[in-house]
Amino acid sequence: MSQPQTVEDASPATMDGRIHVCPLRSLPDVVVSSGAAHLLTCLQDEIVVETPASIEPARHVRLDLDDIARPMPGFVAPNARHIADLIHFAQAWGGRGPAVIHCWAGISRSTAAAFISLCTLNPDAPEHLIAGLLRDASPTAYPNRLMIMLADMALRREGRMVDAVESIGRGEVAGEAHPFWLPADLSTLHLR
Hints:
This protein is an alpha/beta fold. The protein has one domain: Protein-Tyrosine Phosphatase, Chain A. The chain contains six helices and five strands, in the order βαββαβααααβ. It has helices at about 25-35, 80-95, 110-120, 125-135, 145-155, 160-165, and strands at about 20-25, 40-45, 60-65, 100-105, 180-185. A five-stranded mixed beta sheet has the order 3-2-4-1-5, with helices on both faces. It is globular, with a radius of gyration of 15 Å. The termini are far apart. Residues about 1-10 have low confidence and may be disordered.
């Protein structure tokens, strides 16, 4: 069995994939229409999401966390283990082929996970340009700030991820986002 490709092994030539971001309600349609082979679920533990038949169970990663930006009694706040698992998901996917990331509404946890995945796979891409791409793709994106802060530390981005997400603001308020996608390879982003 071959080892998963690491970020160091990924190159723009191999990163031909897309990250599809959606709310739970759209998940079945997005998985089918995208042809995704990787799935990341960002939901609290009591919401069970079955692995779609088209995705190998080992390629469905679940982050059991609530959508909160600071610890609160009775809730599971994003933590360093969640972020390590998210970074590992992005590295194992390697930007090859389609991947789907979802949460309940497709607004906070999933957009944070998409931003973190893109920062993981594109270590030289400026954070503010990745955040701008996210905002262009989804006017409702409001990435979970605690997830971003933890990932900024894990990826050693020295506060740039946090600043970038703050720079795009709150966005449009909505109960649920429309599904959207982002390219995995951002090597030409500096030209924007």
